Amino acid sequence: MDRNIKTVLLSEEEIHNRVAELGKQITQRYVGEDIVCIGVLKGCFIFMADLVRCIDLPAAIDFMVISSYGNGTSSGDITVKKDLSRSIEGKHVLIVEDILDSGHTLTFLKQYLAARNPASIEVAVLLNKPSRRQYPVTAEYIGFEIENEFVVGYGLDYAELYRNLPYIGILAPEAYAS
Ligand code: PRP
């Protein structure tokens, strides 16, 4: 285990099993339909790759990059750095995010995409931190509800590191204390 990880919160196996369940749920929800999966980079990249392989539907894949500015948290204004490459008008959209925290990103994104008249918008998140919510938004498909811990791995970073850990770990305080 990485020496900066205090505890493994979710093992590879737990994540693998839960992602497969989410994929089945999503497949059943949209049976007979096509979907567009929209990943929000960078945090989504591993979850998205695993999830879409558990969805048994015709699925187009697209990505967005968005940034928040402000007081160092995600409560500032949001800017779209990379937009979709195709129209989503009339399509069933599934937003794929690694973590739902304050809800600011998702609130922005749902409004932003709704303006393009998709047939529907639903959201899949691997991790949900309900105790951190500042905006009244939720996801239809949630991998795990977690406490307010500093989690990294499986796509989630601290200072751009740890995204490649195959599990979700809690970062040791000495790894981010300066
Ligand atoms: C994270 C995560 C979500 C957002 C959630 O992205 O991927 O997009 O924060 O936080 P919120 O609910 O408070 O808006 P981050 O800005 O860390 O970028 P990254 O995906 O590149 O790691």
Distance between the termini: 22 Å
**N-to-C series of helices and strands:** EHEHEEEHEEEEH
Q: List the ions, cofactors and other small molecules found in this model.
A: 1-O-pyrophosphono-5-O-phosphono-alpha-D-ribofuranose
Outline: globular
| Computed Rg | 16 Å
DSSP strand content: 25-35%
Report the total helices: 4
Mean pLDDT score: 94
Oligomer: single chain
Q: Based on DSSP secondary structure assignment, what is the total number of beta strands?
A: 9
Classify the helix fraction into a percent range: 10-25%
Main sheet?
6 strands, mixed
Q: Can you list the strand order of the major beta sheet? A: 4-3-2-5-6-7
Q: Structural class, from helix and strand content?
A: alpha/beta
Low-confidence stretches: 71-75
